[in-house]
Amino acid sequence: MLYLIGLLSAAHALKVLDVGPPRTGTQSMHAAMQILGMEALHSGYHQSERKTACKYLFGNGTLENVWATLSKYDAAMDEPFHLLYEEVMETFPEAKFVLQVKDPEAWYENYLAMERGLFPNGDPLKFAPSWQKKCNAVGVWGCNWHTPTASSKKACMDNFKRHIARVQEVIPAHRLLVYDWADGWAALSHFLQLPVPEGLFPSVDLPGDFTIPGHLAEHVASLR
């Protein structure tokens, strides 16, 4: 425990956790946090940084190891970090939370198109251990992108909706921004008590560009 206290005091105190599920604009929010001067982790760009949180949530890992991973960052986003809001609330009492809301059907179809585009030959996690399957492509929600059924789609979307609802139930309103993309910089900057940057709010979607072999190869390799 003394080690953990020392680690947190010497490290970045996590300021912002994006609790929006993957494919709800987490890449754009990552870019926004960087523009606002934060050291931000998007786990889709740095898959190796997921492991401690994946093991904590779905294996035999420890929360202490998660905080060691996050000790380099001011903000974190994408799976599985969006599931750690209760732990972050307790450990970082000054941390704030951002939730991007997307229509469940639109979210599902967007995710399905991305997975089919990235992995046309089937599920790259087919033979992965259980903790890894749950921790990627929102497998923990029963989402099945490569052999979907009506029941798997329903389970996936229902769990998406439950997450959105529970986040808003559990996180106090003064610590949570339900972000509307139409609000641009103003709402986010005001919420974080930071100056409003010049220029347009960023719009980023690298995994959506399936023509970039380097990104695809790195993503596939990181899942092995």
Characteristic key phrases:
224 residues, alpha/beta, Rossmann fold, five-stranded parallel sheet, 10 helices, disordered C terminus, P-loop_NTPase, Sulfotransfer_4
Quick synopsis:
Pfam families: Sulfotransfer_4. With 224 residues, the protein is an alpha/beta fold. Helix content is 46%, strand content 8%.
Chain-wise SSE layout:
Blueprint: H1 2-10, E1 16-18, H2 26-35, E2 40-42, H3 51-58, H4 63-70, E3 75-77, H5 85-91, E4 96-100, H6 104-118, H7 130-135, H8 150-170, E5 176-179, H9 184-192, H10 213-222
Large-scale geometry = globular
Biggest sheet, in brief? 5 strands, parallel
Q: Beta fraction of the residues?
A: 5-15%
Number of spatially distinct domains: 1
Which strand order do you get reading across the main beta sheet? 2-3-1-4-5
What gap, in angstroms, lies between the N and C termini?
33 Å
Q: Portion of residues in helices? A: 40-55%
Structural class comes to alpha/beta
Which architecture name does CATH use?
3-Layer(aba) Sandwich
What does this structure look like?
The protein has helices at about 1-10, 25-35, 50-60, 65-70, 85-90, 105-120, 130-135, 150-170, 185-190, 215-220, and strands at about 15-20, 40, 75, 95-100, 175-180. The chain is α/β, with parallel strands linked by helices. It has a single domain (about 1-220), classed as P-loop containing nucleotide triphosphate hydrolases (Rossmann fold, 3-Layer(aba) Sandwich). Strands 2-3-1-4-5 form a five-stranded parallel β-sheet, sandwiched between helices. It is globular, with a radius of gyration of 17 Å. The two termini are about 35 Å apart.
